[in-house]
Amino acid sequence: MYIETLEQIRKMIKADGLVAGDKLPSERELSERLQVGRSSVREALRALEFLGLIETRRGEGTYIKEVGNHRLIDLLGMFILQDERAKEDLAETKWLIERLCLQLACQRWTEQEFAHLEKMIRQKTINYELFFQWVTAAAQNYLLERIWRVLHDFFQTIHGIMSFPDHFYEQMLNAFAKRDVAAVITLWETDRQSPLSKER
To answer: What Pfam families does this protein's entry cite (predicted)?
Structure first.
C-alpha cells in the first residue's frame, strides 16, 4: 500500500510545484488529502527519508531535499554489485559510461571547466580519478556522474588504482580544446582497451 502512497505523494509534489527546501504537509494532512491511512503515509515518508529525498527537522516538519543529495544510486550499488555476474560486468559497464561521459564532456565543457582541466594537466596534478571527476562533471548529467562514482569505487576495490601516462592527458586536452569528439574517443579506446569482447 505504501508504494501507491509514494506515487501519490510524488504526484502531489509535482502538482503543487514543491521544490527542494519546501515543507511537506503533515502526516495527518497527507492522510486526509490522499485518502489513505496514516500508517501508509508514515511508511512512505520513512522510505523517502531513507533514500535521502526528504528530511525531518525536529519541531519544524518534513522538507524536500536537493535531488543531488539522495542515496538511491549508492544503495543500489551496495546491493546489486554484490552479485557475481554483476561484478563480471562491472568493467564493461564502467567503460561504456566513461566513453559516453567523455563524448558529452567534449560537447558541453564550459570555459571555466576547461581552464581547470588545463591547470591540472599543466601542473601535473592530475590522475585517473581526478580526470574522470572532471569529465563526469563537465558532461553535465548528474545521474551519470553518480553512477560512475559508485562503479569507480567498486572497481577500484576489486582491481586497484588505474593510471594513464602524462601524454594521454595532454592529448586529451588538445582534443577537448577543439571539441573533437572523434579524437577524444579514439584516444580513449587506444589507451583504455575495450572490455566489450567477452568469452561466453
So the answer is: GntR
